[in-house]
Amino acid sequence: MSTPRFSSRLPLVMGFSTLLVLVGGFGSWATMAELSGAVIAGGRIEVDQNRQVVQHPDGGVVAEILVKEGDVVNQGDMLIRLDPTLLTSELTIVEGQLFEYMARRGRLEAEQDQSDTITFDPLLIEQSALNPQVADLAQGQERLFFARRDSIAKEIEQLTKRRDQTEDQLVGIASQVKAIDRQLTLLNGEIESQQRLFDQGLTQAQRLLALQREGASLEGDKAELIALDAQSKGRITELDIEILKLGTRQREEAITQLRENWYGELQLREQRARILEQLDRLDIRAPVSGVVYGMAVFAPRSVIRAADSVLYLIPQDRPLVITAQVPTIHIDKLFLGQDVTLRFSALDQRTTPELFGKVVNLSADAFDNEQTGASFYRAEIQLKDHEIERLPENTTLIPGMPVEAFIKTADRTPIVYLTKPLTDYFAKAFREG
């Protein structure tokens, strides 16, 4: 019985056929299929363009810290409260001086206008109802006002009495002058009669001389009375001037003191307004909604200097800007508006999806990495609309977070990918040759 011969032709045909199919299929795929290219660049979420610095213009001592790193806050929420002790003490001193000036101004204005009552500033009236010490200041000025007014009234009353007495003296003087005039009239008649008798030799010269001496004496008395009358009238004028001066002197003093008082009051008003404004700013509130980041204070009684950064807020409603470092050899493949796929390596890759963005800016020149010395171009990438909403709940993107960017380039066939290194090598070799 003969053994059947095994033919190798069939396996060879099948092998060559399979190889031909594989080579043909791979060739067709390599020449017809298109693969999406990408430039891979490392980057991070940019800090400077996406943070809101929180500062305090005056500084102070921290009394209470109400937030911690990573907290999500809304606009207007309290972040840090500063200690008001120093400002409150300063305000008490300034207000004490200010209300004293205001009370004095009320009295001086009443004296200037010669009013019967004092009209105080509304702020002083309001504070008097709240603070007994302020009420004492106002009442003290009222007592001084009425005391000064009564004192002047008494002085005027005394001067008026003296004036009335002088006027009574004038009446008496006038009566005496009239009496002397009547006596002189009678005496002159008697002198004329005695003169006629003397001329006729019917009387003695002594009698005539006695009458003439009496007339001269009456004339002297009359002259003294006239002089006294003029003196009394002058005294009345002086008293009228003194009475007038009492009123005008108080008014002039009030005007002068008001000018000085107003200057001091104005300075104290400005100081009070400044302190009240500082007290209103003791509560450091969030200027925008966002995530607390980069806190510079961590415990009460810490000191904050004026205009120093207290913390940062990362707004979650603004477009995130991601910066990627693109190697210089790939810059010719990038352009504005280019699609980018982003992976956030700091987040859980199982639950965090890839997000999509686009190139919004390219640096005009290359930068050097100070650590590695490698050159790169800076590409700014912005997430597309609503991409942030695809993140898992309670996931927050914060500045500084590392990002892996796949910047999509032109589609190419697999054969181009395979032959590109060779063609580049030969092109370079031929140029060198």
Automatic annotation (TrEMBL):
Membrane topology term: Single-pass membrane protein
Domain AprE-like beta-barrel residue range list: 320-409
Record localization: Cell inner membrane
GO terms (BP aspect): protein transport
Keyword field: Cell inner membrane, Cell membrane, Coiled coil, Membrane, Transmembrane, Transmembrane helix, Transport
Keyword Membrane in annotation: yes
Record keyword Transmembrane present: yes
Residue span(s) of domain AprE-like long alpha-helical hairpin: 89-261
GO cellular component: plasma membrane
Coiled coil (UniProt feature): 149-176
InterPro entries assigned to the protein according to its UniProt record, in alphabetical order: Beta-barrel_AprE (IPR058982), HH_AprE-like (IPR058781), MFP (IPR050739), Single_hybrid_motif (IPR011053), T1SS_HlyD (IPR010129)
Family: Belongs to the membrane fusion protein (MFP) (TC 8.A.1) family.
Protein name: Membrane fusion protein (MFP) family protein
Native source organism of the sequence: Donghicola tyrosinivorans
